[in-house]
């Protein structure tokens, strides 16, 4: 399963290679903090409990002509969304670290820099 680091995503935003950002978090979390241009399809709780039916019912809201990057709080539940999208024929990746990783990247936090080093070492 593919993942994309926040710095890699940032490089692609606003380019011809910009992915579709699918934020699966609950609406209230999305309303507090989100990546500009992302689309909220709040299926986090369903996926967390192992139910992917809601996401499958909403696939028609997700374009299939470009990569989809799934976003959740930390990137764990988004992996499930990425798996569903992969199975449905989408080119999909998970945002490493989720919105927390993105926020850390934006702030240049020490925690993000350590995680980023870890992600790079893991390949």
UniProtKB/TrEMBL annotation:
Instruction: List, in alphabetical order, the Gene Ontology terms for molecular function in this entry.
Output: transferase activity
- Keywords associated with the record: Transferase
- Specify the Rhodanese domain's residue ranges: 15-107
Determine if Transferase is one of this entry's keywords.
Answer: yes
Organism name: Halorubrum tropicale
| Record-linked InterPro entries | GlpE_sulfurtransferase, Rhodanese-like_dom, Rhodanese-like_dom_sf
The record, for PROSITE patterns, names: RHODANESE_3
Gene3D superfamilies registered for this protein in UniProt: Rhodanese-like domain
**Protein name as catalogued:** Thiosulfate sulfurtransferase
Asked if the Swiss-Prot or TrEMBL record annotates the protein with the keyword Transferase, the reply is yes
| SMART domains hit by this protein | RHOD
């Amino acid at each position: 399963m593919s993942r994309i680091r926040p710095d890699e995503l940032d490089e692609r935003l606003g380019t011809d290679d910009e992915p579709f950002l699918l934020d699966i978090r609950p609406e209230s979390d999305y309303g507090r903090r989100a990546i500009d241009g992302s689309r909220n399809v709040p299926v986090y709780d369903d996926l967390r409990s192992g139910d992917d039916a809601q996401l499958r019912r909403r696939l028609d809201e997700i374009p299939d002509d470009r990569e989809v990057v799934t976003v959740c709080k930390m990137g764990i539940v988004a992996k499930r969304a990425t798996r569903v999208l992969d199975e449905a024929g989408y080119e999909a990746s998970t945002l490493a670290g989720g919105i927390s990783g993105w926020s850390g990247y934006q702030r240049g936090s020490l925690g993000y820099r350590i995680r980023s080093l870890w992600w790079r070492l893991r390949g």
